Amino acid sequence: MSLLTDLINLNLSDTTQKIIAEYIWIGGSGMDLRSKARTLSGPVSDPSKLPKWNYDGSSTGQAPGEDSEVILYPQAIFKDPFRRGNNILVICDAYTPAGEPIPTNKRAGAAKIFSHPNVVAEVPWYGLEQEYTLLKKDVHWPLGWPTGGFPGPQGPYYCGIGADKAFGRDIVDSHYKACLYAGVNISGINGEVMPGQWEFQVGPSVGISAGDELWVARYILERITEIAGVVVSFDPKPIPGDWNGAGCHTNYSTKSMRNPGGYEIIKKAIDKLGLRHKEHIAAYGEGNERRLTGRHETADINTFLWGVANRGASIRVGRDTEKEGKGYFEDRRPASNMDPYVVTSMIAETTILL
Amino acid sequence: MSLLTDLINLNLSDTTEKIIAEYIWIGGSGMDLRSKARTLSGPVSDPSKLPKWNYDGSSTGQAPGEDSEVILYPQAIFKDPFRRGSNILVICDAYTPAGEPIPTNKRAAAAKIFSHPKVVAEVPWYGLEQEYTLLKKDVHWPLGWPTGGFPGPQGPYYCGIGADKAFGRDIVDSHYKACLYAGVNISGINGEVMPGQWEFQVGPSVGISAGDELWVARYILERITEIAGVVVSFDPKPIPGDWNGAGCHTNYSTKSMRNPGGYEIIKKAIDKLGLRHKEHIAAYGEGNERRLTGRHETADINTFLWGVANRGASIRVGRDTEKEGKGYFEDRRPASNMDPYVVTSMVAETTILL
């Protein structure tokens, strides 16, 4: 279908100043991404210069039919890796016509926390490790697995190569480049322990941009799997039994933690997180109890445990951080389907404001 | 899926200075290659300028879960033939956080031998002839063979052409160009005696770089078979019976051997190897006893035999070397699954240091 590809890849910069902006938002489930496009008269690089828009909230479970308009506020711009040229992706959040964030809008609450002076002063950095599973379309069984059966047990697949160990690398590699092109701060990728499962990392990002970047990275990923005819799953335990789950480990540091004496600040922060373990777990993703079992490199969901280089802990501190007396730590509890606005702001709130 | 291909082939040099570095290491079995990628802020050509990294050794059989971090030290850089642009492949070896090579790290000890002043002075050259077998995915039967059956007996396949004699040439030829692109010193390829079996040669390489180059060539090969949906096997006797095995013949010379009077040095070196036959055989690859039978162009595993132009010998000296009184010799004992760090350093140690 090269004629279709020719049209998709048309470089419009030769014929017009107009650009296409794809407005992206999160739907009523809190995990379903939605988007639609509009033409703008010329290139835009500042979100505040983009027009507000609206969508039919009654079609996404976010508004009643008789009063269906939900307003989109543009928050972050990225280059569009699919349309390229001067075309853009726009991360938005959703408000009522009266200007109130709708209930599923988690960004607004996070933005409040991240603009608190105590939090601003600490310059919180986040590194988010997004794990996900690729599934065959229609049968919803992992890519590379025999349909109706299972592959050999876990062992060879983590960072593995070869047609019998790595399934779907073309999706992963095109996602890596597409995100770099888009301006997302994607820092790496690796094949995961369960076959058909992969991970990418976004960061270090400051404050609210961690959430914006992870959501646009998830958007780009699902658009790519759409092209590939494969389904992406963010379920935290896609296959029950002796198969790893999928998480979104959240690496975190503040200015104080990154400076000399930071290790003590880190230990104090971990203690504060320990006191609010239940509240955090409740906000760390649905279905996480199927994943946090104490096996498969997790800590049991009811246990709060931290340790250096310990992958079976709730919170892991790297050896480098221990050795240098400063650095960052990794909260291993969040599930792959966590909302990064919620998780990043909650960690900042618990460790800085409480 | 040309849209996916467009993304995989995006040339990021137009949009960013950032590059992607694929860090490669050897896993717990000593033959399983692993890799993961990270973003760097700009191009790097000197391995000592690359950051150390770490990986989850508990997922590769190289560390326990409670203390899972294994440190990667970058050792050699090659251009990435898959991502192209300024992106790179990095051959690494693995250390504990305390800085000790982990038990499966064979490069560290080889580097010690190759930095011994006597060895340095002799400028040891290696030419490694890597044989391998291509297998159909899922059934693990050689490519081109009827599933559940056998092709006609060996004879027509060695360097053969034609759809009934050469199976998988697209893999072999893309590997050849990819390696040249990457900067690997690949010196040739040929179809082998057993149908579905091929060989490539790397060299002449000096000292430790022989191992680095062979490992990255193996990595590129398995990444290419992954794309092709075919499995590569380095088993030394993939099919029992009247079918050739797969070796990694190691050609070797020192400065003294390459100079006038070198033939006497060669004979002395071969004698030294003969005295340590059992020790070398033990380090020349697992399963080699199935291959070194005395038939199919091998010498029996318990016999140490050398001869000019003799392919049934443990060590073969070429007619040119005999005629010119200097040159190199070929150790035919190593199996296809040998570790080149072990074999090259052991040959140097036995012939130069003992």
Can you walk through the features of this model?
Two copies of one chain form a homodimer. With 354 residues, chain A is of the alpha+beta class. Chain A contains ten helices and 13 strands. In chain A, helix 4 packs across helix 5. Chain B: It is an enzyme of class 6 (ligase).
Give the rounded overall mean pLDDT of chain A: 96
Which stretches of chain A of 5+ consecutive residues score pLDDT under 50?
none
Radius of gyration of chain A: 21 Å
Helix-strand pattern of chain A, N to C?
HEEEEEHHEHEEHEEHHHEEHEH
Q: What percent strand of chain A? A: 15-25%
Decide which structural class fits the backbone of chain A.
alpha+beta
**What helical percentage do the residues of chain A reach?**
25-40%
Number of strands of chain A: 13
Q: Biggest sheet of chain A, open or closed, and with what strands and sense?
A: 8 strands, mixed
Intertermini distance of chain A: 58 Å
Q: Determine the most extensive contact between two protein chains.
A: A-B, 51 and 49 residues
Shape of chain A: globular
Catalytic activity (chain B): L-glutamate + NH4(+) + ATP = L-glutamine + ADP + phosphate + H(+)
Protein name (chain B): Glutamine synthetase
Pfam families (chain B): Gln-synt_C (PF00120), Gln-synt_N (PF03951)
EC number (chain B): 6.3.1.2
